[in-house]
Design brief:
The protein has 103 residues and is of the alpha+beta class. 51% of the residues lie in helices and 20% in strands. The protein folds into two domains: 34 residues, no CATH class; 61 residues. The two termini are 39 Å apart.
Length: 103
């Protein structure tokens, strides 16, 4: 039977062999703070910074979406403006349904 004890920079593993003898091994691990350089995930940020970044991303990509949609409407012979709005509603409904089914 083995027991694993995790400390800040060391992991100690104690194993009992044949129910009587005990053997202890100590393995040194790299310090997590030294190993990690920079951000590995958005989870490393504070909640207010996460909210600001994600909210800014929504406005940025929605702006790009609108610019592209306006550019499409200015193409000569493009007469599907109502269809673009209809497809947008269908896409949102599909995404919402998928979200509700998955979660």
């Amino acid at each position: 039977m083995c027991r694993l004890e995790n400390q800040s920079t060391f992991v100690e593993k104690s194993c009992t062999i044949d129910g009587s003898s005990s053997k202890t091994m100590t393995m040194e691990l790299a310090n997590q703070n030294e190993k990690r350089k920079g951000l590995n995930s958005i989870d490393d940020l504070t909640p207010s910074v996460q909210f600001a970044l994600l909210g800014s991303g929504v406005f940025f990509f929605f702006g790009i979406h609108n610019i592209l949609q306006e550019a499409m409407m200015k193409i000569p012979g493009f007469n599907f403006g109502v269809m673009l709005g209809y497809m947008e509603v269908i896409e949102f409904a599909f995404a919402l349904t998928l979200k509700e089914v998955v979660s």
